[in-house]
## 1
Amino acid sequence: MSNFNNNGEKITKAANMLKAIAHPIRMQVVELLDNDNSLNVTEIYSKLDIEQAVASHHLTILKDRDVLQSARDGKHTFYSLKHKQLSQIIQCIYQCLDE
């Protein structure tokens, strides 16, 4: 990594993204969206077998931390990963657990 002093803002943003995905439900959301690309909140909470309010709460956190992006289509909001590489971080951690 290059000069830490010049990358302070970038490091802070990266840490916030990692904090956002560092929760079991949010990790599942990232994995789900990596596989299905774009889903609405109903599809997400149904596939994860969680309550709608819980799904909405975690989706908001992920969107606020720049992990997800959203697009409206009529009355539905569809969520997708803003950065596909984030799912690779989760897979890397799983591989570390298998060692």
## 2
Amino acid sequence: MERNPIFQIRLKEESVIHVFKVSEKDAWSICDFVTANEDRLLDFFPSTRAQNLTPDLSKRFVAQKEKQFQSNEEYLYVLKPVDSRKVIGLVYLKELDWENKQGEFAYAIDYNYEGKGITSQIVKKISNHAFQELELKTLQIFVHKTNIPSVRVAEKSNFVWIRTEKNKFQPKGKEPMDMELYERYKS
């Protein structure tokens, strides 16, 4: 029996994308997603990439993420077309600071689905959920200025540019990078 989605969005071309909390059933599909998008994940999702290069690694990754979801440490959502079990994207709500009521988004979508507004719609839905149900007050997105699609997701999801964070992120084997901080606040 297929589980019920947490959210769904309808695209212009009448297709529907479901959003689920990560589940053991997703391990193989996450491995496939990472393998198909390995180059895209290399710099900004090195840990996710490394933990999902084989089905066995993905099983361990998913088990860890399920535990983190249950303990409210980190939330990983998977995106799937309504008529498929294939994972086409990942959205993290991470770096949760319950004392300050703050969290951070990270997201990646399959190259075949980029530019359709899917990630922006999902980030909006999860933001609303985070404000209403999780009672967070501040949500953040860190993005490199050259990652124009990610900048557009932040802006389309009602996040506002705050500042440049110097040397905020260091991809493996590369120099530290400045990242742009975008925030959205509970109204």
